[in-house]
Amino acid sequence: MRLQNKIAIITGAGSGIGRGIALSFVKEGAMVVVADWSEEGAQETVKLITEEGGEAVFVKTDVSKKADIRQMVRTCLDRFGRVDILVNNAGVYKSGSLHEISEEDWDAVLDINLKSVFLGSATVIPEMLKLGKGKIISIASIAGLVGFDKGGPYCASKGGIIALTREMALEYAPQKINVNCIAPGVIRTAMTKDMLADPTTQQFLTSSAPYPRVGVPEDIAMAAVYLAADESDFVNGEVLVVDGGWVAK
Ligand SMILES: NC(=O)c1ccc[n+]([C@@H]2O[C@H](COP(=O)([O-])OP(=O)(O)OC[C@H]3O[C@@H](n4cnc5c(N)ncnc54)[C@H](O)[C@@H]3O)[C@@H](O)[C@H]2O)c1
User: Fold this and answer.
1) By residue range, what is the domain housing residue 145?
2) Which end of the chain has the lower number of beta carbons within 10 A, N or C?
3) Whose CA is nearest to atom 23 of ligand 1?
4) 206 lies in some domain
5) What residues have CB less than 8 Å from 234, skipping those under 6 apart?
6) Distance (Å, whole) CA 135 – CA 84
7) Which residue stretches of the chain are H helix?
8) Apex CA 117: angle with CA 113 and CA 123, to 5°?
C-alpha cells in the first residue's frame, strides 16, 4: 500500500473529489481527517470509510476561518499524533459576468478557494517541519490555466493556488515538504451537476473534449495518491493536469 500508516487531512471531503480522495487514501493505508462545513456529507464519508474497516474522524470546518483550521489541525494531532499530508480541496464556484458579480461573492470564492490554502498550509507547515517531511496537495483547476467564461473569481482563485503552490514548493523544499497541485478538468460532482445536466453543455463537451468522457472523482483521487506517496518525493511545485487532454488542445 502506498500510504501505509500516513495521516492525512482532507478538506471538503464530504462530497465529490474530496470524498474520492479520502476513500482512496484509506484504501492505500492512510488514516484521515474529514474536514467539511457540511456535517451530513462528511459523516457519510466517515461511515463509508469505517464500514470498510478504515479510520476517519470528522471535524466541522469552514476552511475560510482561521479558528476552524486551527481546530481541524488540533483534532488531527490529538487523534493521530501528527500530520503527514494536507489536501486543500474544499472549494466553491459562483458564475456571473465580472461587472455584475457582487463584492460578497468575489470575497467568498477567494476566501474559500484560495485563502484556505494559505490558512491550511501555514497551520500544518510547523508540524511538518518538526517531522522533517510533508506533502501538501491543493486542488486547483484548469480554470487557473485557461479562461472560463463568467468564472472570474473562480479563475482568479485557482490561478492563485497555482502561483502559491510554486512559491511554497520553493520555500519548503529544503525541509522536504513537497507542495503540488492538481488541475482537474470537468469532473462529475455536485459542483458540476447542473452544468452537466444542461443539453447545450453536454453537446459542447461531447463535440470539443478530446477524451470521450467526463472525469470522475477517482481520476483525481489517484493523482492525489501519487502526489501523497513517497514515490513522488522528487515532484515539487508541479501542476498535475488531469483533464483528458482539454488544455493540451
Ligand atoms: N468538479 C469539477 O469539475 C472540478 C474541476 C476542477 C476543480 N474542482 C475543484 O475540486 C474541489 C472539489 O470540488 P467538487 O467538484 O468535489 O465539489 P463538491 O461541491 O462536490 O464538493 C465540495 C466540498 O467542499 C465543501 N466546502 C465548500 N465550502 C467549504 C468551506 N468553506 N469549508 C469547508 N468545506 C467547504 C462542500 O461542503 C463539499 O463537501 C474544489 O476545489 C473545486 O473547485 C472541481
Assistant:
1) 7-189+217-242
2) C
3) 12
4) no
5) none
6) 6
7) 16-27, 39-51, 66-80, 103-110, 116-131, 152-172, 193-197, 199-208, 217-228
8) 145
- Answer whether residue 42 is part of any domain: yes
Residue 212 has phi, psi (to 5 degrees) of -85, 40
In a domain, 199, yes or no: no
Rounded distance, CA 138 to CA 184, Å? 11
Within a domain: 35: yes
63 Ramachandran zone, left/alpha/beta (phi>0; psi -120 to 50)? alpha
pLDDT tens for each residue of 101-131: 999 999 999 999 999 999 999 999 999 999 9
CATH of residue 237's domain is 3.40.50.720
- pTM value? 0.98
139 Cβ closer than 6 Å to some ligand 1 atom: yes
Q: Is 139 exposed, middle or buried (0-12, 13-18, 19+ CB in 10 A)?
A: buried
Count of domains observed in the chain: 1
Distance 12 CA to ligand 1 centre (A): 6
Overall size of the chain counted in residues: 249
